[in-house]
Amino acid sequence: MQKIGLFFGTFDPIHKGHLKLINFFIKNSDVEFIWLITTPQSPFKNKKEIQSSSSRLELISIALKGNSKVKINNIELGLPKPNYTYLTLRELQKQYPSNKFILLLGADNMVNFKKWKAYNEILENHELYVYPRKILDTIPNYFIKHPKIYWINAPFIDASSTDIRNRIKNKKSISDLVPKNVCDSILDKKLYI
Q: What is the CATH number for 62?
């Protein structure tokens, strides 16, 4: 049975913070592979704000080039919108019954995890590896002490895709936030302008 870490996100765009976390989990946890689940539309985000799936997938491919431990899984692109994690997990488990799927989540997700559809089903069937993120509210004690939730001492990532998009709109450099090949592609294709 392979342990697969699932890293969900719109990755709009993927940045060095994402890559740092991916590398951390590959080197410092028991997950053997990481699958990036590219979300076409989060139930918590406005559809208009998101770059096309093909543009985002292309940037992710560029960023991951040569990393055999990480792959893109675009399962959510074929599922009904908006995308709910529990349905994606059900579908993954159906397609890959011999894999054990672990969710890699930022601590900011845990503040409102009770609002996720079927969050109990997720916790019943999967472990969560939670990495530090800036949080503005308290995380319910239930999640802090939950036996299936592991609080991982991963590096704190302050980079955000929103910040990168804003920098591009304001004609500021993003070269310190994204890999060079991703930066070149964004500028080349005039994305996020």
A: 3.40.50.620
